[in-house]
Amino acid sequence: MRLLHRLGLHDELLSRGSSHSRFVLHSVQGAILGEQDMVGAVREKMGFGYLRIKRTDLLDVLLRATTKARIPVHYGKRLTAVEDTDSGVTITFADGTTDSADILLGCDGIHSSVRTLYVDPAQTPVYSGLSGYGSIIPIAALGSSHAATASQVRGIDATLTQEGAFAAMSCTAADDELYWIFSGEVPLPEVGDTRDGWDVRRKEEVDGFKDTMLQVLEGASGDWGTTMRRIVETTDVVKFYPVFKLPPGGTWSRGRCLLLGDAAHAMPPHAGQGVSMALEDAFLAARLLKDLPLGQQQRVDEAFATYERVRRPRVDEIAKKAASNAGVRKKTGPVGLRIKEWVVWAYMWVAWAVGLKGVGVEERHLVYDIDEAEL
Q1: In CATH, what number does 20-52+127-245+331-375 get?
Q2: pTM
Q3: Are residues 173 and 180 in contact, defined by beta-carbon separation less than 8 angstroms?
Q4: HSE (side-chain half, CA atoms, 13 Å) at 295
Q5: Strands 126-138 and 156-160
Q6: Helical H runs in the chain?
Q7: Which of 63, 73, 142, 293 has the most beta carbons within 10 angstroms of its beta carbon?
Q8: With 70 as the cut, is the pLDDT of residue 192 above it?
Q9: Phi and psi, residue 204, nearest 5°
Q10: Helices (H), 271-333
């Protein structure tokens, strides 16, 4: 949020999203295992916290800012070739058009064409073993009795189950809509190739999500358990998404081409820092390229090398945290679930006892400022 504030976008985003940062963990028996502010200390130090916002709202704000800055956006373009020389880069699109520039920034996601066509074709996404359902519903649709419980969601309310983790969170400034998600282990498809197999699996999962989720939540007790089931029953449409990641390492630059964000280092979303990593990449790249004599290949090479030297240690550490957080989403039995609940309860109790004002990603990661990173 601090970086978005520097772009002049903070206030408009804040007016559309939910900034509540309370985290509540419920047991399947209906008890509250722990409750904490995820960013209390960070907010006190920086003046910024978390923001949950619908993707459509975020994109709208970003595109408005892009238009205001007179930056053209071309739609329907699919990259098919990259020609890199000491003096510039020429790219070709599927429609036969071409474009040239001093450098090429690949910000095109985990399935990056810039990476697969040129920078690092050997670096391909791998399945993490986890998949998720997700949807957004209006709280009013739950009915008066369940809406009363759901309207108390401020931040994230979560429950661990034997099959994975369920969470619901406010995602609008008016707190009138809930985003819910369930993530757990799903095996690789056994039919067709990887793409066709996931198409078949996705249809199966989407068509049967209510039966699956109601079975997962069947044993959940208390008001929150009843409300979780009501949330699922009220949902008409879900998105099913297998979680992919890029293996550690890989090449982030080649010649005059540089990868940013998920194109370079896609990680599972379990640390909640994927967008932050991409923003930090962009700010550092802008810092390094500003006033750089792009006609001099050696200076470009030096800038790209500095980018990797600064970013890799931080990205690797956040990726390890995301992998660690994935553990609670894996299948377990009744005893294993009780152990997970006890461990989380003990951690949150100790944090409360010693006066910690945040849970999740460590404070030092949240207060990190890419603009102050030593080059």
Answers
A1: 3.30.9.60
A2: 0.91
A3: no
A4: 0
A5: unpaired
A6: 2-6, 10-14, 40-46, 55-68, 113-114, 144-150, 194-207, 209-216, 222-234, 262-265, 274-289, 297-325, 334-353, 363-366
A7: 142
A8: no
A9: -60, -45
A10: 274-289, 297-325
The label of the residue with tokens 């400022």 reads: 369
Q: How far apart are CA 25 and CA 34, in angstroms?
A: 5
The Cβ-side half-sphere exposure at 128, using a 13 Å CA radius, reads 28
Quick one: tokens of 121? 């074709």
What's the full length of the chain, in residues?
Answer: 375
Where do the structural domains in the chain lie, given as residue ranges?
20-52+127-245+331-375, 102-125+248-328
Amino acid occupying residue 233? E
Domains 20-52+127-245+331-375 and 102-125+248-328 fall in the same CATH topology: no
Residue 196 binned pLDDT confidence (cut-offs 50, 70, 90)? low
Classify 261 in phi/psi space as left (phi over 0), alpha (psi -120 to 50) or beta: left
Closest by CA to 373, choosing from 11, 1, 3, 10, is 3
Among 359, 345, 365, residue whose Cα is nearest residue 40: 359
Taking the C-alpha atoms of residue 208 and residue 162, their distance in angstroms, rounded to an integer, is 19
> For residue range 135-179, what is the model confidence (pLDDT) as tens digits?
999 998 988 777 667 777 878 999 999 999 999 999 999 999 999
DSSP states along 169-181: EE-STTS-EEEEE
What does the CA dihedral 216, 221, 226, 228 come to, rounded to 10 degrees? -50
pLDDT digits (tens, 9 = 90+) for 307-350: 999 999 999 999 999 998 888 899 999 999 999 888 888 877 77
Give the architecture-level CATH label for domain 102-125+248-328: 3-Layer(bba) Sandwich (3.50)
**CA distances from residue 195 to 80, 282, 290 in whole angstroms, order as listed:** 20, 30, 40
Measured distance CA(53)–CA(305) in Å, rounded: 34
The contacts of residue 152 (CB under 8 Å, 6+ apart) are none
